[in-house]
Every structure is written in structure tokens, then in C-alpha cells.
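2024-03-11 09:14:02 INFO queue: dequeued item Diphthine--ammonia ligase, len=733
2024-03-11 09:14:02 INFO validating residues
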Amino acid sequence: SSLKVIALVSGGKDSFYSILHCLAAGHTVVALANLYPPIPADGLEHEDLNSFMYQTVGHSVIPLYEKATGIPLFRQEIRGDAVNSERDYAAPAVTLGLDETESLVPLIARIKNAHPEVNAISTGAILSTYQRTRVESVALRLGLTPLSFLWQYPLLPPYSQSALLHDMRAVGQDSRIIKVASGGLDETFLWQNVADSKTISRLGKAIARFCDNGDGAVLGEGGEFETLAIDGPDVLWKKKIEIEPDRVILGGGGEAIWEGKAARLVKKEGERVGLKSLRIPYLWDDEFEEVLASLETLPEPTLPNTAAEPIVPAGASHLKITNMHYKGDWSITLSAQVYEGDLPLDPPAQLASILHSAVNTLAGDDLDTTDILHTTLILRNMSDFSAVNEIYGPFFTSPNPPSRVTVACGDRLPSGVDVMLSVIAAKKLPILKTYRELGEQPGGLHVQSRSYWAPANIGPYSQAIATPLIPESDSVSCSTELVFVAGQIPLIPGSMEVYTEHGFKGQALLALQHLFRIGRAMHVGRWVAGVAFMSTCPDQETYQRVQTAQTAWTAIHTAPPLPEHDDDAASDAEEAQVTDPWDMLNIRGPLVFDDTTNREPLPDPSMIIADENTAIPPCFVVQVAQLPRDAPIEWSALGLAKGTLTSEMVFHQPRVFYTDVKDSKVRFIALEVTDDWNEVPTLIRTGVWDHCTLYAGPDFPDNWGSLKGVSYVPCQAVWGHGGKKVRGVLVGR
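2024-03-11 09:14:37 INFO prediction written
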């Protein structure tokens, strides 16, 4: 639906280009918002404050944007400093000093008073989590939807670092370089149009000499340069800005600032390009598009005997494993937590009771909600999703709350139970203390802005949370991290609408692409196993969907390796391969800028030692009553990042997949439970599980007793390797 947007503008190229994407999405920009540096005591305006959060150079030109665009401009003086310098930002609970981020609050409040219809805010964040999370924090507190349409732009097709600059040139946006600070750039770059092909070429040559490939330097993401937008397409720019040059200020460390004078608005003449030339990043990654094409040609599946059986409605689970509390070597698992009080409660009240109890239990182990890594939330009815989220959210106030999988299991939940929650929390081990002391705090990914990259959160949870694994002994170190990824459904990232093209095949693959994009962002090189939740569907479609999900999983794991470079990625730059005096003076040798953005390999063959039987992690499909947004599929997986892994598959009656981590005592196991295999209960009773998730079908054995360290999902049906229906599967460590 159309949003009424506040566009946060710094004067730079990205904030104005983001406005064009807001307009292309059908949104209306109601106001421009800008923060400017305070006037110093000497009464003289200085162009640069070197704010961590805001671009301030060129701020004296900002007032002209109101008449240049015809959009009301609201401004606010920046107060405070970067008190909170953490990468991920949370609203200050106790004021230790005013953080500059909070200057946004009164500014947006003023705009909301003047334009009560506003419900979104746009930012030009590309790769800066620091900037994005701060805008998100303020926006969400004030009831606004954050929009970051340029987020991860270089990692989207065509995977070109300079694609954004070429796209700006295509629509006629004119943004001038007004500050250079690093990356081998000198004052000769000042007042050049950053989207001009010659400038892009020169930037590339300088970046090749001084910066790493893929770090966004050619876009100025590391502060290499800053820009000032002075013109663009008529759909936004009604007039253009002209500025006379005044002087160049040279600072230390190679810093140079261009200052102008007599800035004025000028009437635009001639026809200019508009939104028709605005490139919207393609939805599909190359390898996923190829898999989609192959799925479209799949023949109708031949049903195996075990899969052809109709799915009959299953009653409540008979397993007695609710409200379990287990301490493993590494984690604490609160599995299948349910409300067991005498008074009947509605679903939100049930969850509130469960969460209060969980908080008290964790407190007994000196833990709190910030130590929780992942949760599994099971509802009886998905219609309770929004109401339950309102209770769930306030319990998790850290910038990176735990990742989460949410499904509805209908009448498979025990009688009287409408909500069931399982929690995995990390114990306070010495390795985690050392990890934090080294500045390598277990990371998370919590993107709440709409973008073209992957869906924003539709609940209070992170896309992914990573935590280090325990070394084998005190004498060795283990670099591998375990990554919990939230369940992914097939939403179109830019609109957050459910994707419907190509039917279930397109939906299964898009949700899987979201899983992989998040995995790459977290440096995942190997999945322990993939689990595809499938909502109830007609019996004749069930096995087709099982086959589609497992075929997609196999195909993406056997796709050709990602190219490390692409000579055609930025063909426009070839036009500008000229030698100028700056090149001859500053470049020694035939340095070539590789414009291709190198994406993380997933799977990463250098990370895993595997034979042909274990080259592809197992993929299980489980059927539940309903999924969020009435989606037909939701992907979930545990990821492993960094380090070296080995894997093997043991050929008992079912397959058992083992993944071992070098220099760690951890073993990951994915196994199937069939009718005629009795070794799993013995394995469970040994207590070797630190944590795992059990996906149990209606005929899962009921004589397993207490399953320690196990989170539990009661399913309508479960399929293992090759689409064979099984009683259940377990995935964990």
C-alpha cells in the first residue's frame, strides 16, 4: 500500500536517489527532514562536523531543497555526540549524555504534528549498519515504517560496486563531490559529478590502489568522499541548484573540502529523463533464477508408496515433553513451554505467563533475555499472530533480539494449549567472555527496513544470531560460529507482499533465496540441515510440494560456483578508460579496478571436507496447519560460519548425518526416525544433546520418555530423504 514518507536528506547522493525509489514504489514524499550542525560560539558556520551519523558538509545549501523539489523541508540542529558508538543501536534507557541519534526524535515529532498522515521514513543507507539501525530505532519508536531501498545495493544483481553510480547517471541525478578524505582521492576530484562515467573510472582506479574490493569505497561508504546533490529528474527536481566556487580547504590526512558561494535556484530547461529510466534491482539472484527455470520444467513426480498416503487430520500430540528445562554444556534449553494454570487464558495472556516464567527460570542461571539466541513460537491459530507479537516484543529490547521460527500447529497442540514456546539461551562461558573482550561479540543481523535485499522483520526478532562454538580444549581455538536463522517466507522485499508468480515453485525458491542471502551476510558456509515448513494443502498437491522443496534445496547446492569477477559487469565504465594527468601522476603500474562485488560462497567448498554422500546437507519437509501471512512455505536452517568442517552419513535403516567442527567438541546431527529403527531412544537417553529440535509426526513413538535438550514441533506429517514419509526428524548438536 502507498505510504506517506518523510525523506531524511543529508544533501548527499544516496538520500535523494532513495527518494526516487520511494516514488517508483508508489509512495508519496510528504516532507524532507535534515539535521544540521550547531552554530559555534564564534558565530561562523563551518561546513564539516565529522558526525558519525550524519553528513554535515555542504549543510548551508540544504535550505534550497524545499523550493528545488517543491516538498516542505524541516530542519533540526544536531545535539549531542556519538555517545553510543556500538554498531547496533538501541534507544537509551538511562541518559549518560545526549546521543546525536536522538536529535531525530524532536525533528520527526515536529513533522508528524504538521503532517499527521506520515507513516514512513526513508534513508539512504547502503552498507552502514551503524546508520541504518539508528534510523530504524527512532522510526519504530515513533510508529514509522523505515525504508532503506539502497540497502546492500552492491550485492544485488548485477553485483557491481559502481552499479549505483551508473544508475544515478541513467536518471540524470547530478551529485558533486565536495569532500575527499581517504582512498587515494585528492582535491582534483572536488566538484566532479560522481555519476559521470569519467569520474567513476577515476574513482575505480584510486580505489584499486588504496582500498579492498567490495568494501563500498567506490560509493564513499567508508568516508572516502561525500557529495552534494544539485539536480535530478523532473519527477523530483523542479529546479536545479547552481553554486559558484569559492575555495578548497585542505586538512590533515589528505582531507580536502570544496566550498562554494552564491548558491541559487535555476529554472530547468529541456526534457529530462524520469522514473522510466530508474532501474529496479532484479528480484532473483542469478543462480536462483537458473534453478527456477529448471523447476519449471520438472515432470510430474512419481509418488512413492509412503508419500501417496493421504494426510489425515491428526489429533493432539501424545508426547509428554512440555515445560522441560535442560542445561547442556553450552546452552540452556527451555523446551515446549506452555501455560498450565487453572484459570483459562487467551493466547496473549498464555504467552505472557510463559515468558514471565522463562525469565524467572533464566534468572536462576544468571541469564536474561539478552542471552537468548533463538526461539520457536508455536500457535494453535495463526490469527493470533499479531496479538501475541504485541506481548512478545517488549520482552526483547536489545538491538539484536533472538531469531525466531513461528508456525501454527492447530489441533496438534495439547488440549487447552494455544501457545507453546521453546527457547535456546547461551550459558555464560569463559569463551563468550573472551569473545566479547576481543571485540568479537556474537553478532546478529536485524534489518527492520524495507529494501530490495530481503524481507524486513514482521515480528520482533532478528534475521540471524551467531555465537561461537566451544573449543576442544583450552589449548586450541575454534573460529567456527553457529548461526541461528529466522524462518523465511516468500515475501517480496520491497513491498512485503507475498510473492505469487510461478506458483509454489517460485514461492519455495524465493523464501530459500532469503535464507541464503541472510546466510551470506552472516558468512555461513554450510547448513547443518534445511527444514521446509509447508502449510496444509490439498492431498494431491502435497507430494509435489515436497518434491519441489527438496529439489530446490539440492539444485542450489549443486549450482556452479559464484564467479569471482565479471568483465561485463560495468560496461559503461569502458567508455571512460582514458588517461588523464591525475592518472599519470598518482597511479604507478597497470592497476585495474575489479568492479564485481564478490558475494560470499554458500555452500563454501573450502570449508567442508565431505564425500559425495554428504556434499549436500539433508533437507526435511514438515507439514503444519498454517504459516505467517498465510504463506505456503517457510524455510529454517542452522548455519555454520568460518572454520573447517567434516561430514559423514551413516547408513542405518534411516540416514544419520554427522557434521564435525575442527578444534571443537561439537558434533551436529540430523537424523530420521522410521518404523523399524530403535537406536535413537538410546542416543537421546545418553544425554549427549546440547540442544536440538524434534519435528514429530502424529505416529511418532510415545515411549521416548523425557527428551532432554529438545525443542518440539508437533507436525501433521514429516518427510525425510528422497521424499520418504518418516515418523519424525531431529536436528541439533
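2024-03-11 09:14:37 INFO annotate: The longest strand covers residues 239-250.
2024-03-11 09:14:38 INFO item closed
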